[in-house]
Amino acid sequence: MNHGYDFPRIQFANQEDKQEFSKFPTKTGRRSLSRSISQSSTDSYSSAASYTDSSDDETSPREKSQVNSKGSSDFCVKNIKQAEFGRREIEIAEQDMSALISLRKRAQGEKPLAGAKVAGCTHITAQTAVLIETLVALGAQCRWTACNIYSTQNEVAAALAESGVSVFAWKGESEDDFWWCIDRCVNMDGWQANMILDDGGDLTHWVYKKYPSVFKKVRGIVEESVTGVHRLYQLSKAGKLCVPAMNVNDSVTKQKFDNLYCCRESILDGLKRTTDVMFGGKQVVVCGYGEVGKGCCSALKALGAIVCVTEIDPICALQACMDGFRVVKLNEVVRQMDMVITCTGNKNVVTREHLDRMKNGCIVCNMGHSNTEIDVASLRTPELTWERVRSQVDHVIWPDGKRVILLAEGRLLNLSCSTVPSFVLSITATTQALALIELYNAPEGRYKQDVYLLPKKMDEYVASLHLPNFDAHLTELSDEQAKYMGLNKNGPFKPNYYRY
């Protein structure tokens, strides 16, 4: 049963692309691109310590022998001694994630995930820790790793390890570390994942390529990012997706709240923490006017920035125009810009040619999942000097003295350089938890070997769990009104094709 959804299929450019899964495109709903394993979310040239890690110990966690208070060493984190501090971070996050806690309390007696062995690859923050511990409370066994080398909160990873979750992640991993951690997450004697929760598709890709027998036995995949969803559709198109997958990214509760409202706040936080910039009067170009771009533009405009937009999609471009933003080509305005922000999901949106033409002091950053949007590799040349001025902030200096300020080496700005609101992540995390429960408990035959959207009824349920935070009171349909509209009084209230 597919709940009546039609899923778009992305066409392969040629037969070679169709046959080579390792080069399948990685992210963007409307944009097609290819990314090899060397262009994954691991590309990096330097590592950074956690903001909250006061230790000067530069020893790789892989070389340390650590055990938690229970005597277990089945984890790899920066410093297990930070667990107490991490626990306080998690407790703070729980205060603004009441809906997820409510779901935990309602369902933990039933243990709907009993027997589930979940391999997870997400940002490891206080908020995702609340999700992980919710899954454990619902009966799941979890092993976890990070989807981004800079976004892990070391103290939170330590707290999870102390609680018994096998977590393999630390802030500032190298590329080799990143894939080592993913392998440790899934390669465990006597333990075999039967569910995957992914953010970006790297874990799914690794299991598919390295452990095909495990992949075939997985009962379901839950993917929350544009990148990972795009990769799943490519796998499905090639006829190689042998398990059902849930596209959480395009659920209304993820798309509208995480992508739009979360980025509307976190873009400012990330820029302020790294650069102390004043936004009023600044010339800013935002590349891409999807949900993330809309959130960024709204925030920047509200603080007095003069914002223009680049777009390839005429519908998004028209939306930008109607919202009061000038739609331009990047090469037309790049010389005048004080900030260049990418959020397209594409590759090489900002090229070396663009970077060469930027003015002194221009801030360049990315709000997309991966580091493919800014051609950072083109800046690794002998004539340019790199100067690390603070954590996650590099000055790239041209021979004439011009400096471009590059944030997080072109990686996701908000989770690399700041934090994101707990409340909005509660919405996404609740959606992920329900998707896992749905796939794990679905009767045989309900879901085929394909990619599905979250049933609308579940989207509405997630939203309803969060309304009490605002003391919001829903109006109820009368029997006559429900009959007139052709609706069930309890929902769903919109058809599948409705665009919120």
UniProtKB/TrEMBL annotation:
Its cofactor is NAD(+). It is an enzyme of class 3 (hydrolase). Binds 1 NAD(+) per subunit. Residues 259-420 form the S-adenosyl-L-homocysteine hydrolase NAD binding domain. SUPFAM superfamilies: Formate/glycerate dehydrogenase catalytic domain-like (SSF52283), NAD(P)-binding Rossmann-fold domains (SSF51735). InterPro entries: Adenosylhomocyst_ase-like_sf, Adenosylhomocysteinase-like, Ado_hCys_hydrolase_NAD-bd, NAD(P)-bd_dom_sf, S-Ado-L-homoCys_hydrolase_CS. This is Adenosylhomocysteinase-like 1.
